[in-house]
Amino acid sequence: MKNAWAWIGARSGDRRWSMVLSGAMALFYGWQSVQWATRNPYIVQDDVRQHVFWAFRYLDPGLFPGDWIADYYQSVAPLGYQWLYHGAALLGWDPLTVSKYWPVILGLVTTALTWRVMIRLLPVPWVALLGCILVNQSLWMEDDLASSTPRAFATPLVLAVMDALLSRSLWGCLGAIALSGLFYPMVAVVAAAALTVNLGRRWWATCRGRSHPEALTPLDWRLAIGGIAMAIAVLLPELFTSSEFGPVISRSQAAALPEFNFVGNEYGRSFFFHPNPLIFWLFAPRSGFLWVGFVPPIALAALALPRWLSRPARARQFPLASRLSPHLAMLGDWVWGGLGLFLAAHALLFRLYLPNRYGYVPLRVVLPVAGAIALGLWLDRQMQATQSQKPRWFWPLVSLVLSLSIVVPMVPNLAVSSQLQMEGRMAEVYEFLQKQPKDTLVVSLSKEADFIPIFAQRSILASREFALPYHWGYYRVLRQRIEDTIRAQYTSNLSEVQAFLRKYQVNFWLLEPWSLSKSDLADNTWLQQFQPLIQDVSDRLDRGETPALERAIAPCSVLENKRLQLLDARCILQLP
Q1: What is the pLDDT of residues 504-524, one digit of tens each?
Q2: 8 Å CB contact between 506 and 569
Q3: Residues 437-440: contacts with CB under 8 Å, at least 24 apart
Q4: Is the pLDDT of residue 469 over 80?
Q5: Whole-Å CA distances, 519 to 524, 538, 566
Q6: What pLDDT does residue 100 have?
Q7: Which of 2, 326, 378, 444 is deepest in the core (most CB within 10 A)?
């Protein structure tokens, strides 16, 4: 068994096999994702429903006219992201199809950048391959890349900046940060923070003596100052552009809303304020620094790297350590820079978006890269040891653990199950609505409403998926719409239903008949956020009041199945 590892070490001078296997790994995961996403025309990644539907306007400018929701999501999309889907539309590709295939391209680009970064940090091809494997597992066992949303660009952009810095390319650094500002501005912010930390750390090294390997050179100053200046330049439009959907919600507003807190025993729609301080600061998905989604367990070997390399005497125990780049400490700069921004984001809550993102963005790259280097150092050290120093079971056990760590995530559909691919089950509803005028407006409290914009390309008044409360100007309007819909759906007065339909100029009402019962209302954790309105509705149902909408089901249904009924608003308006 050790001979096999020795063969790998002997082949470490040949980079071609490492590059080919790395690319094959990315293609394998991408192929799995595409196979799953295209097996049914009504499969869509969860976040694509929010962040991509508006791009159908590029194919047909008449879609979503005056749509508050579409206007909002288009306004918050980064400029480069808009250009991407606009360019695809010019080629005749619809946004939904692009969202299913684009992750494969991004996955290959990310793998190539990972390989380059690994080789620059430790020029050993089999370690570079290991790094590519860990990064691909991190990418495809989560939903970021598969979403084709702006955050799908986070990992490749971080790697692009790292690669430019390691190759000492000023123009490469400026270009990578500029692209970050266009596709996922948070990477530009974290890159600027990492460059600031790097500058401070190396300035201190310079103060200790020019002979120090981390001493600053004129090129280092140009890289740092140029990179920070570029980050500021690409972020200025974000800082000074006003929006009709603002302002950003404040801490006090968020703390008072059930959407950010526990609702009964359930999380709010955008749960943030966890009562446990340890979870809140470290592990909560929106507020904790260490919540990084899925990371391969063996990547946690990265935690040992600082200790192993902290002193020359320790580093000499690892023969490969002598080949490490002197710029390896750059990985720590990203973590420390992210930590500083994480604290700033908590202090300026929601103005810098979610605090967790500033740990999530750098750690999703640093942990797999540093973990692969740590494993490479450790495995090489073990291979250098004589056979008599190891028990007979040592190499079989190491091989088994590493093989399982690599093979298990490749089990068919295991990665796909983590990508939040959602299936719309009302094909007849989508097809019917597609035949209606482009200014058609649908109202519904059903989860199925989440799929209507992406599959039918028709507007909805509101739904859970689109009820993100971070911009108060946007959410105030949406919350009012939801409350008005609740009142209209459960009122016993038909004239109130008709007044609601006229106010919003609704064309169709998508209704789950059983949703008119108290038991269904009590089980709907999303609607429970809208108190005291929901309690008032529940009390009225307790008193035996019958929702007026029940009268409209039989005469006004234009489409129905076992789960849903689509009611014609014109018919409801004509009921006596």
Answers
A1: 999 999 998 878 877 778 778
A2: yes
A3: 437/507, 438/60, 438/62, 438/63, 438/64, 438/65, 439/65, 439/66, 440/507, 440/508
A4: yes
A5: 9, 9, 22
A6: 94
A7: 444
Alpha-carbon separation of residue 21 from 115, 208, 266, 510, 561 (angstroms):
11, 43, 44, 50, 49
pLDDT in tens, 199-240: 888 887 777 665 556 667 888 889 999 999 999 999 888 777
* Residue 506 structure tokens: 């609704």
- Write the DSSP assignment of 504-556 as a string of letters: HT--EEEE-GGGGSHHHHHH-TTGGGSTTHHHHHHHHHHTTPPPTTHHHHHHH
Whether 489 and 228 have beta carbons less than 8 Å apart is answered as: no
5 pLDDT band (50/70/90 cuts)? Answer: very low
Q: Which two tokens stand for residue 87?
A: 């360019």
Please give the DSSP secondary-structure letter assigned to residue 471: B
β strands within 258-328, DSSP E:
262-263, 266-267
Residues 72-116 pLDDT 10s: 999 999 999 999 999 999 999 999 999 999 999 999 999 999 999
In tens, the pLDDT along 471-494 reads 999 999 999 999 999 999 999 999
Cis amide bond preceding 368, omega within 30: no
Write out pLDDT tens, residues 328-342: 999 999 999 999 999
Contact between 350 and 186 under an 8 Å Cβ cutoff? The reply is: no
Query: Cα separations (Å) of 208 from 30, 91, 193, 384?
Result: 48, 57, 23, 35
**pLDDT tens for each residue of 7-53:** 555 454 578 888 999 999 999 999 989 999 999 899 999 999 999 99
User: Which segments of 348-426 does DSSP mark as H helices, in order?
Assistant: 357-384, 394-407
Nearest-10 crossing angle of helices 125-140, 16-37: 10
In a 10 Å sphere around its CB, with 0-12 CB exposed, 13-18 middle and 19+ buried, how is residue 162 labelled?
buried
Q: What is the mean pLDDT of the chain?
A: 88
pLDDT digits (tens, 9 = 90+) for 404-433: 777 777 776 777 888 889 999 899 999 999
DSSP state of 352: T
CA gap 375, 130 in Å, rounded: 9
User: Could you count the other beta carbons within 10 Å of the beta carbon of residue 38?
Assistant: 12
The dihedrals phi and psi of 442, each to the nearest 5 degrees, come to: -110, 140
Six token digits for residue 336: 């420390």
Rounded to whole angstroms, how far apart are CA atoms 66 and 505?
12
Task: Give CA separation, 76 vs 72, 222, 226, in Å.
Answer: 6, 32, 27
* CA distance readout (Å), 415 to 140, 143, 155, 291, 361: 6, 9, 18, 19, 20
How many Å apart are CA 461 and CA 569, to the nearest integer?
Answer: 13
Domains of the chain: 2-418 (no CATH), 424-574 (3.40.50)
The answer to whether residues 359 and 295 touch, using CB atoms and an 8 Å cutoff, is: no
Peptide bond into 258 cis (omega under 30): no
Distance CA 545, CA 537 (A): 10
